[in-house]
């Protein structure tokens, strides 16, 4: 397994910042109040966790689609089909209130991690992909879980 390229690691961690912000504003009411007054209610707490979480889960469908372009025959067909699942999951299941939506996002990110590992097993991802995805998924799941607890 090769090391995660520095730029991919930094940008991946930067992508976790909105999740961390959402969790922190759930944990600390004063930060929530400041964020709401300075940034608006769309950018604090559960709202940012669910909204941003849905965007990123859908974005990851596109990443998987790109990996599927490296496959041939039946693996390509299956890869394309499976790549649509995270976006469809978000579309059909994320909603119905913040708590329900967050639980479905947690399930969606766990499923996405399974797909990441499958595409890696098929040899469609860079060698470092699963290391990056394991780290980022753990951080995202921690933030989503903290958002539920507070």
Molecular structure report:
The protein has 150 residues and is mostly helical. It has one domain. The chain has helices spanning 6-27, 29-39, 45-68, 73-83, 85-93, 98-121, 129-149. The longest helix is centred in the middle third of the chain and has 24 residues, at 45-68. The mean pLDDT is 97. Keywords: Membrane, Transmembrane, Transmembrane helix. This is DUF3429 domain-containing protein.
Proportion of beta-strand residues: under 5%
**Structural class by helix and strand composition:** mainly alpha
Low-confidence stretches: none
**Quick one: overall form?**
globular
List the secondary-structure elements in sequence, H or E.
HHHHHHH
User: How is the biggest beta sheet arranged?
Assistant: none
The helical percent reads: over 70%
**Using only CA atoms, what is the Rg?**
16 Å
The total of helices stands at 7
Summarize model confidence as the mean pLDDT. Answer: 97
- Could you tell me the number of beta strands? 0
Distance between the termini: 37 Å
Return the domain count.
1
